[in-house]
Amino acid sequence: MTRPFCLRVARLLPLLWIAFAALPVQAANFCGRDSNRGQAWNALTSSFSQSPSNISGLAQSLGSGGNCAAIGSSHIWVWDSGTTSWSDSGSIASLGAVVESEGNYAAETGNAVTVYDDETGSWTAAQSVSGLSSIVASGGNFAAVGNDEVWIWNHISGGWTEIQLSGLVEVIGSAGNFAARNGSNVHAWSQSDSSVTVSPSISGITDLIGSDGNFAAEDGDEAWAWDRSSKSWSNTPFSSGLLELVGGGGNFAARLSTKVWAWDRTTGSWHSTQTFSSSAIQELAASEGNFGVRITNKVYVWNQQTAGWAAGQQFGSGALLDLIGSGGNFAAETTTKVDAWNQSTGNWSISTTVTSGSIVEVVGSGGNFAFRVSNRVYTWSGTSSNWSSSQQFGAGALLDLIGSGGNFAAELINRVWAWKQASGSWSSSAQVANSSIVELIGSDGGFAFRVSNRAYAWSATTGGWDDTSSYSGFQQLIGAGPNFAVRLSSKVWTFNDATGNWTSTSISLGEIDGAPLAACSPGACSDPNPCITGSCNLELGCEYVSNSDPCEDGDLCTIDDICSAGVCIPGGALTCDDENLCTDDSCDSGIGCVFSDNTAPCDDGDICTDGDACSGGVCTSGGPLDCDDADPCTAEACDQIEGCTHTPIFGCNPAEVPAANPGLTGLLGLLLASLGARRLRNRPDA
């Protein structure tokens, strides 16, 4: 069923937090079971809700996308985080394995699969699958694998698609998409339209991997990549010598003995490094779509933002020890310092020099890096691209360093310090007995640790520490999103990141499972920019791509505007022609076509008028046409068809015609012409 707006916002929070490093991270629920009922902890209310009825044979609790499922021998009760209510599947014959995927559940029932759809809040009719052997989950979707057939359920359409594939070897999922292969072909299924694209023949496929919804297959000599946007396959420019194929952020990299080729998802093309000496490549690392190649004393990085390989970063001869990636960035460890590469700037920044060989470990988290020596921790922020001054601890006290959601936690013998990327500052927990810390975990930006009789948690939102009261009977410490839960024999402590507090509930659970909310919900990823199309990837969150749709650039004097690279590009100029000579045509970007009256000369259509001129947007007649030819022996007139006419006056002698004004001469000429005509009619020989 459609999620309430508040939950849709909560699902978007982790993406916004990564982008701006100052907003709260997403909430998360917990799922559990006691002896005969399911239990769901709601992060919005910090309270448990139990299923309304006993569940026969209750053996499993399964969290997914904020929802909870309590699984019995023939019934599954699902708690929906949107409605905060439980619903019963009804009796499911031969109930087998149950698989979760971002709020949805798929259950085996003999040779069929039935699915709980989070959007409708109900179970679908069972889909028969011949020889059903397994269910693969990806991004809210499910692939039911049978004998040479795969049935795929799409959470967007709520329908099934069948793929028949002789000699089926494996099925994998990636960000909601699936790929099924046999020995020579890969069938790639797209959740956007449930279409299937078959690869060209790839003889002897040895590996099939997925990355952010894309897939790549290789046969030991060359690789083929499938792009989820164009739904097309492209192969490597080389045809032999492939040693390694890795994926990251939707891109792929193929390593040969002397160079590395990177496949760019945006263009579907391959880009190679320079050629190295044989076997010089020591490591190929991936980081959110970028790739780093380490040789003896240099690192070469392929940046997806520029779609190119950068010149190698030079280190001391033989000094380069390790290369790690995080959030699209890289860190290169040498004997005395750590260099960090920022994908946004394409530049390296160098840490303070420490004693040779004293670096114990380098940790990446959410695009940031930290490294520790015996009693200090140095941190690098991907936002500022700067290394901070080290945090000083007691000599020999530093035991461990972990990362979570861009933050870091340093474990000492008697306390834990947490570093928050938004502020760049450290905060310390309360002090405990030396060496009493049993466990330290991170979850979605937060941290929690326990001693024998107490638990402490650090809020990624508030940046503060809080601890439980003393307890006994410890069973389990678990994180879900930035929240934490401690399961005891007869009580559960839950930490809510939003409030920064622990609360306890007297309840005995056989197990507890985390249920982080899905990164987004279908329909919740619209963008106000008409040139950007948003979609929900339940595993990765809202995804936005530019489109080529018609648009309006805001200038009414352009037409056929079109989207390109996320921007509305003006089309051609608007033609403003009203075919009226008595108006001046122009265009105002805020109004559109403008037609202004003018006083230009014109023709009113009457041949016997002269000096016509425009007025008020119409052609106005001038005076009568002057047809005087200055000949006293012609009669002037104006004909509506022929215009001026000049009729000779019979018997007229110009010398005998007295000078007169043109008007009198014209009348006299007409009179003489008339008399001459009468004489001709009266002559006997006429």
Quick recap:
It contains 2 helices and 69 strands.
Question: What descriptors fit this protein?
Answer:
mainly beta; 5-stranded antiparallel β-sheet; disordered N terminus; single chain; elongated; 69 strands; disordered C terminus; 2 helices; 686 residues
Question: Secondary-structure blueprint of this entry?
Answer:
Elements: H1 5-20, E1 28-33, E2 38-42, E3 47-50, E4 60-64, E5 67-71, E6 76-80, E7 85-88, E8 95-101, E9 104-109, E10 112-117, E11 122-123, E12 127-128, E13 134-138, E14 141-145, E15 149-153, E16 160-164, E17 170-174, E18 177-181, E19 186-189, E20 196-198, E21 207-211, E22 214-218, E23 223-227, E24 232-235, E25 244-248, E26 251-255, E27 260-264, E28 269-272, E29 283-287, E30 290-294, E31 298-303, E32 308-309, E33 313-314, E34 322-326, E35 329-333, E36 338-342, E37 347-350, E38 361-365, E39 368-372, E40 376-381, E41 386-387, E42 391-392, E43 398-404, E44 407-412, E45 416-420, E46 425-428, E47 439-443, E48 446-450, E49 455-458, E50 465-467, E51 474-480, E52 483-488, E53 492-496, E54 501-505, E55 511-516, E56 532-537, E57 541-546, E58 558-559, E59 562-564, E60 567-569, E61 572-573, E62 583-588, E63 592-597, E64 609-610, E65 613-615, E66 618-620, E67 623-624, E68 634-639, E69 643-648, H2 662-682
Antiparallel strand pairs: 1-2, 1-55, 2-3, 4-5, 5-6, 6-7, 8-9, 9-10, 10-11, 10-12, 13-14, 14-15, 15-16, 17-18, 18-19, 19-20, 21-22, 22-23, 23-24, 25-26, 26-27, 27-28, 29-30, 30-31, 31-32, 31-33, 34-35, 35-36, 36-37, 38-39, 39-40, 40-41, 40-42, 43-44, 44-45, 45-46, 47-48, 48-49, 49-50, 51-52, ...
